[in-house]
Automatic annotation (TrEMBL):
Protein source organism: Deinococcus cavernae
One GO-annotated biological process of the protein: biotin biosynthetic process
Role description: Catalyzes the decarboxylative condensation of pimeloyl-[acyl-carrier protein] and L-alanine to produce 8-amino-7-oxononanoate (AON), [acyl-carrier protein], and carbon dioxide.
Enzyme class at the top of the EC tree: transferase
Keywords: Acyltransferase, Biotin biosynthesis, Pyridoxal phosphate, Transferase
Description of how the protein assembles with itself and partners: Homodimer.
UniProt GO molecular function: 8-amino-7-oxononanoate synthase activity; pyridoxal phosphate binding
EC number: 2.3.1.47
Annotated positions of the N6-(pyridoxal phosphate)lysine modification: 242
Catalytic activity reported: 6-carboxyhexanoyl-[ACP] + L-alanine + H(+) = (8S)-8-amino-7-oxononanoate + holo-[ACP] + CO2
Protein name: 8-amino-7-ketopelargonate synthase
Ranges where the Aminotransferase class I/classII large domain occurs: 42-382
Pfam families membership: Aminotran_1_2
Organismal lineage: Bacteria, Thermotogati, Deinococcota, Deinococci, Deinococcales
Amino acid sequence: MTTSLSQRLQAELTGLKDSGLLIHPRVLDQANRARTSVDGQQVVNLASNNYLGFADHPALKEKAEAYLRQWGAGAGAVRTIAGTLRIHEDFEEQLAQFKHTGSALVLQSGFTTNQGVLGTLLKDGDLVVSDELNHASIIDGLRLAKATKKVFKHADMQDLERVLQENDTDGLKLVVTDGVFSMDGDIAHLDRIVTIARRYGAVTYVDDAHGSGVLGEAGRGTVHHFGFDHADDVIQVGTLSKAWGVVGGYAAGHHDLRQLLINRARPYLFSTAQPPAVVGALSAALELVQSDPSFMERLWDNTRFFKAELHTLGFDIMGSQTPITPVLFGETETAFEASRQLFREGIFAVGLGFPTVPRGQARIRNIVTAEHTREDLEKALAAYGKVGKALGTI
């Protein structure tokens, strides 16, 4: 007998509920800032990717409003028909200059950027070698590619070299890695990855969603952090949300990369261009981070303080090297209960369990921002101390 839509929906939702994986997102009642209101409660916000505090920054809102008034509410078409406004190309030139690359192209999101770039570049007979902890958007992008796909153990350079040795090809070879890994907060060994990739004639592809605005001079990212920003055999992709506070994705690299993506990347070809207000806000974000180094300075001062104090309390922060600071609780229900108790203490920090992270490694992922005050972080640390003792974690 045919399954009805209602039966399918109920079965899937019941399965999620029984597994403890059914999500009910909390709702913010105010702008996404270091202190905000969530479900009617004032909280210190440790759940946002708003690294530099740009999501509600006056400079971004001012330029967004100016672009909105001059250029309208929407672009009106896909880029290849009638949706490319002068401001789109101006921003892409600004982004390429910022990233020190031959070209840059903006797409609708970081997720669709991986689908578009990987789907465009990789063909039958090519080889792609991917870190096992790469983001879901990379995994989905690779599903669209006809290339031979291999995985190397997370951050294991010997295993990367083994895979490249055992899988030669006359086609394009691509080594794919996150710049900063979103669950653990560790930084890819890009200095070694690029060296090994070059040894086997491979191109390095870096998803720098959590590295842009965080690492490198003026937030240029992980590639700049390791000194490869002028390299034509390194492709940078990422998001324009997170540190940049808005929305969108980008691909930056070889001067011909942009033109190929314009002609072949399906998310670019079949999606309406970004609204003018978004372009204005993004342009302001790049200007601001380059003119005022205090944003990154505060981000890293806060990060160092928060990590050191969590360590003193006795928490395992899983070797994080960046503002992404996981606190290990082990079992999924323990992490979720810790999140609930923290919320009652006025701290908004979300628990993550299987299948988002491996079994036995459930954690709360905290993200420290430039906007947090020392008072905010001390309040969070006091709450963590209370909750950690109550649950027997410390």
